[in-house]
Amino acid sequence: MDIDTLVIVLGAGLIGLNYLAFAGKGWHRRLWLFWTVQALNLLAACYMVVWGVPGFRREAPIVNYFLAAMFVVRSLLNGRRLQNSYREALEDEEDEKDQLRQSIKEKLKGTDQ
Fold it and tell me: Which long-range contacts (CB under 8 A, 24 or more apart) does 103-112 make?
């Protein structure tokens, strides 16, 4: 396998890791995985800007910039996904607290009569 193919395959693997790492429930509790994928995305973006895929350096350097932008966008989307999951978790927690408050109020009203 030449270096061009290796860089492209590793980039595709990193995009796949972006999707796999955040699939399923409870992924936002594994922050070590989140930050590892984020660091890999940013390192890949830097690699694409500085060195890029060797076959595209002279003929089509815009491809390397496009790939770098793709990794930066993936990183931003992952961050937004983490924020949304925290927001949903807080909303769920507030809903549970509201239900508990309502049940306590109903029990207290039942003892007054």
Answer: none
